[in-house]
Design brief:
The complex is a heterodimer. In chain A, 17% of the residues lie in helices and 31% in strands. Chain A is an alpha+beta fold. Chain B has two domains: 4-80, no CATH class; 96-394, Rossmann fold (3-Layer(aba) Sandwich). Helix content of chain B is 26%, strand content 20%. The chains are: A alpha+beta, B alpha/beta.
Chain lengths: 645, 397
């Protein structure tokens, strides 16, 4: 798997190196706009990566699957896909870049409920995107905004400042870029530029001069960030991405904003945040990306439900949304739309990510709340050490970003902040009482019981009910209800010995939060659990018939979904005890590995030796645990039917 | 020969006409009233209690539901056992009366199992089967609620060891008596069907020697069905495979399951002298408890990983699958002698694997934080009831 981040000016490609760490190749496009002309930019990047990753032969290496980054605005997805496919890549996913940044910073995790601002500033643009991350591993792009304000503006401002100090014939912007990247975190840099007379001309740039020169664009950047931070919903964390954000002072400038007081600003290898986040996507498993304002982006302070559920007349996310989010123009395809206090129908948003992007939901109300004190990670302590702000760090191997656990403790909440809160959809038929606060449950477990799931958890003191949400993941979600939401009473839980959910055999994401009465508890998040899918089921049933020439046995295999049946041995065993392996009986027939079509029985027939007393016919994979390795579950329809005589 | 009935309290048998009546002790229509007096039989059997100051008992036609007191001329419906003088359940003799004895070694979890079983039958299983379970006397209602259900479900505490019957006067064991009611479809529509169930919870020590078995477990011979609870953790071949962290029973004073089964079998065979060729025809549910400790060893296809199908009838196929799976486990646990003994001495027996709590208790003998998740606990009782014809079953076997 390779991850590709194409920008206007730079492209980055990452793949997991032999040591397990991401190896990143960066490339500056020459005369090509990576976003506007990916068909030309991508081959150039791949070629550069082939040189950069020596020993792997081609750029894509033996693994040609790719995950692509897409600007938050969602533009150019088709062109990007076509370019990648033309370059011989197999596009597995297209992930919005802000989501990749969130993954890079480990901001998406089970049970996490937070709102983050992704500040992505590269060579040409400043992209500000607000993401709502909910405990069920859903990332919702609430709004996105683009300013044409990037490293080029920094360079232009510095070039103006350097007027008269550069040798004649020197491109001032190029020289400014060189100096700006060269100064890094130092107080001063001396660059030797070619002079017209063939000699060298030294130019000195101090930190003070640089700060003074770039003050106007920096002020514009900070103003844009401050505007986003002041908007609703309240943001818990600011995540920095893009080469320019690696500039010393960038992070401290944002942290100094009044609107950013008590907020966490994270800045760790920002120039690699997108591409490394894309690479992390493959390890992440279940992730859902939605677009538009969510059903609940934060929690009111005095209860689980907002007191005033009056819907806002404008269901649109924000007037500051300069760029349309992906799929805004398409109609919804929600298979089970729920009634919502909406003035506009929900919209289906075709996602930039193959994992599925759901319908945008109208914003319903606003309410005030303190900033949640949940598990908000702090910025990584390490400062950027890249060679330059938006310069491509050409590094054969970049160490993995630090995990959030390494971060210092989160700052205290700021009670004066306000946030937008939208009531989550009521569980089916369960009007929940006001004044209940949600707290995570402990010891959340789920036991598979065939097609059912027995969900267990430890109830917090005082909780009499719990809200349980589940979502079926993968293709199995297409059959039946894809998700659910209910309130489980503690009394019922205790009487029934847990909560039984009929969710099928697919992967399921569960979140459970107990509802506790009383004020003063301000706790964010829900306990979440991912239950992996069960492998396809192949059932077999033996039968014995008496014929003129003796007894004949048949074994019929049936699968609910198409799968590959491994080599099997049918073993005949005598005695009252069912054989546990092929050595405990005689192999009477072998079934060759073959494709088993869904609901199409495969029957094998063979003569059965005459026996006295009880005997068994049991199937075993020829190669040990081949059934498990093949990802299928081979079992009898009823175990006692294996006893054939 | 008149049909014999068995008292659900003392497990003694008698004919219907032998049933005695007790005066209600209230003012009769004739204006007379019988004096309350201490029932010496009750005192002898159950121990002296003030609640044994009752109206006089008298002999009448026990086949009738009512009788007229010869003293006060008042009509009474109180029918009592001619042996122990306990008040018999309403409609006793006209509804199915099934006595189910529970046998198990020390610390095999009999009390927990019985409590959870009755709770399940009252709640989840009762809902699936459309069945109701009600206490038939005040003592049962009070004792089940306060001594069993509340302690386990409300206080989340396990039980101390059950007191052996030998410490009680006259080796008395007080059973819990319930009425199991089910709506059955008949040719005339849905009709309620009632079965009286009597549960004895005995101490494991009562089965530690043949003398104590005969002395304290006399009710076994009168039982219509037996639930034999065996703890696989007391089987040397199984202990090593238990989930790490599982509390292990000690070895002092404990007996192996095959020894317990041998004693019970001897007791049941004793009154059958002269018919040695016949097997014991009392259905025996051989229940292996604490199966949660072995869940990690089970195949994905094992029926012991699934709950019993929640239907309104007993699923014979599922039960047979569990039977064969447990038999297979017995082989792994060096339990072949148990299987051989059952096969050679019992006509009807069925293996079950249950877990009353679903999780290991905490070291301080409390329920796990996630609560009680009983697992297949009702299967043995439902099988016995299906053998009696008290619940419908689907499938053969």
């Amino acid at each position: 798997m390779i991850a590709i981040d194409l920008g206007h000016r730079f492209g980055r490609l990452a793949r997991t190196g032999p040591d397990g760490r991401p190896a990143v190749t960066a490339y500056e496009f020459d005369g090509v706009d990576g976003l506007l002309d990916p068909a030309r930019a991508l081959p150039a990047l791949l070629a550069a990566a082939g040189e950069g990753m020596a020993g792997e032969g081609t750029a894509a290496g033996p693994d040609r699957s790719a995950v692509l980054g897409l600007p938050a605005g969602g533009e150019g997805e088709d062109g990007l896909r076509r370019a990648a496919e033309a370059a011989g890549l197999c596009v597995e996913r297209v992930v919005p870049e802000p989501v990749a940044v969130a993954l890079h910073y480990r901001a998406v995790a089970e049970g996490v409920d937070r709102t983050v601002l992704v500040c992505d500033q590269g060579a040409t643009t400043l992209d500000l995107t607000v993401l709502a991350i909910t405990p069920d591993l859903t990332v919702r792009i609430l709004r996105t905004r683009r300013e044409h304000l990037g490293g080029d503006d920094w360079d232009a401002a510095l070039a103006a400042r350097l007027t008269g100090r550069l040798p004649e014939g020197t491109d001032p912007r190029r020289a400014a870029a060189l100096l700006r990247r060269g100064i890094g975190a130092a107080d001063e840099v001396v660059e030797s530029l070619p002079a017209p007379d063939g000699g060298r001309h030294e130019v000195v740039l101090t930190r003070a001069e640089l700060d003074l020169a770039v003050a106007p664009p920096a002020a514009r950047m900070l103003a844009a960030v401050a505007e986003e931070l002041a908007a609703e919903p309240a943001v818990d964390t600011v995540l920095l991405a893009g080469g320019l954000c690696a500039t010393p002072g960038h992070r401290t400038g944002i942290e100094a904003l009044p609107a950013a007081r008590h907020l966490t600003v994270r800045c760790h290898q920002p120039e690699l945040a997108v591409v490394q986040g894309l690479l992390l996507r493959q390890e992440f498993g279940v992730l859902r990306v939605l677009t538009g304002p969510g059903p609940r982006t934060s929690r009111p302070p005095d209860g689980y439900f907002p007191k005033d559920p009056a819907p806002r007349s404008d269901p649109r996310p924000s007037s500051r949304m300069r760029y349309p989010v992906p799929g805004e123009l398409e109609e919804p395809e929600d298979p089970q739309p729920r009634p919502r206090p909406s003035t506009a129908p929900p919209r289906r948003v075709p996602g930039p990510e193959a994992d599925g992007v759901r319908a945008a939901e109208p914003m319903a109300e606003t309410a005030t709340r303190p900033t949640p004190p949940g598990p908000v990670p702090s910025p990584a302590a390490s400062s950027p050490t890249a060679p330059g702000p938006d310069a491509p760090p050409v590094a054969p191997a970049i160490p993995e970003p630090r995990r959030s656990e390494d971060a210092p403790p989160p700052p205290p909440p700021s009670p004066e902040r306000t946030a937008t809160s939208v009531p989550s959809p009521d569980p089916v038929g369960e009007p929940r009482p006001a004044g209940l606060l949600a707290v995570p449950v402990a010891d959340l477990q789920a036991d598979r019981r065939g097609d059912h799931l027995l969900v267990l958890w430890a109830w917090p003191d005082g909780a009499l009910s719990a809200r349980v949400r589940w979502r079926r993941e993968g293709s199995g979600a297409l059959d039946g209800r894809p998700d659910g939401d209910l309130v489980c009473r503690r009394r019922v839980y205790e009487h029934d010995g847990g909560l039984d959910l009929a969710v099928g055999r697919g992967a399921v994401t569960l979140t459970v939060e107990a509802l506790v009465a009383g004020a003063g508890v301000d706790c964010e998040g829900a306990a979440a659990l991912i239950v992996p899918a069960q492998p396809p089921l192949v059932q077999y049933e033996p039968a014995v018939r008496r014929r003129f020439k003796g007894r004949t046995a048949t074994v019929t295999f049936t699968a609910e979904s198409g799968c590959d049946l491994p080599d099997l041995r049918i073993v005949h065993s005598l005695g009252r005890f069912r054989p546990a392996n092929a050595a405990e009986g005689t192999v009477v027939h072998e079934v060759r590995a073959q494709r088993l079509s869904a609901r199409t029985p495969l029957t094998v027939e063979f003569p059965l030796p005459a026996t006295r007393g009880p005997s068994w016919l049991v199937c075993f994979p020829v190669h040990g645990d081949a059934g498990a390795e093949a990802g299928i579950d081979i079992r009898p329809t009823e175990l006692h039917r294996l006893r054939v005589t | 020969m008149a049909r014999q009935h068995t008292c659900p309290y003392c497990y003694e048998s008698f004919a219907s006409r032998e049933i005695r009546f007790r005066c209600h002790g209230r003012l009769s229509p004739t204006g007379e009233k019988c004096e309350l007096r201490r029932d010496q039989v009750l005192d002898t059997r159950m121990g002296p209690r003030r609640s044994h100051d009752l109206g006089p008992d008298f002999l009448a036609d026990g086949r009738r539901p009512t009788a007229v007191c010869p003293g006060c001329k008042g009509e009474t419906t109180y029918r009592i056992c001619p042996v122990c003088h306990c008040e018999l359940p309403v409609q006793f003799g006209r509804v199915d009366n099934r006595l189910i004895a529970m046998v198990g070694a020390k610390a095999s979890g009999k009390t927990v199992y019985m409590t959870v079983l009755l709770h399940e039958v009252r709640n989840r299983v009762g809902e699936a089967f459309g069945a109701a379970l009600m206490g038939l006397d005040d003592a049962t209602m009070r004792r089940y609620s306060s001594e069993y259900e509340d302690r386990l479900y409300r206080d989340n505490q396990l039980f101390p060891g059950t007191q052996t019957a030998s410490t009680n006067p006259n080796n008395r064991v007080d059973p819990l008596v319930f009425r199991f009611s089910l709506r059955r479809r008949t040719l005339l529509g849905h009709r309620p069907q009632h079965t009286v169930l009597s549960f004895f919870d005995t101490a494991g020590e009562d089965f530690s020697s043949r003398e104590s078995v005969e002395l304290n477990a006399r009710y076994l011979t009168g039982a219509d069905g037996i639930i034999l609870l065996l703890d696989p953790l007391q089987m040397p071949g199984a202990r090593d495979g238990a989930l790490p962290g599982t509390p292990m029973p000690g070895t002092d004073g404990f007996d192996t399951p095959v020894n317990l089964l041998s004693r019970v079998t001897n007791l049941l065979l004793a009154p059958r002298s002269g018919r040695s060729a016949q097997k014991i025809d009392v259905p025996v549910a051989v229940v292996f408890s604490k199966m949660d400790a072995f869940r990690h060893l089970l195949d994905a296809a094992s029926p012991l990983r699934d709950h019993a199908p929640a239907r309104d009838h007993f699923d014979v196929g599922d039960s047979l699958s569990v039977h064969e799976e447990v038999r297979r486990l017995l082989k792994d646990w060096d339990g072949v002698p148990v299987d051989q003994l059952l096969e050679n001495h019992y006509t009807r027996y069925r293996y079950f694997g249950v877990s009353s709590l679903g999780r290991n208790p905490t070291p301080d003998a409390r329920i796990a934080a996630t609560g009680i998740q009983p697992y297949r606990v009702a299967d043995p009782l439902l099988w016995l009831l299906s053998e009696f014809g008290s619940v419908p079953k689907a499938g053969r076997g």
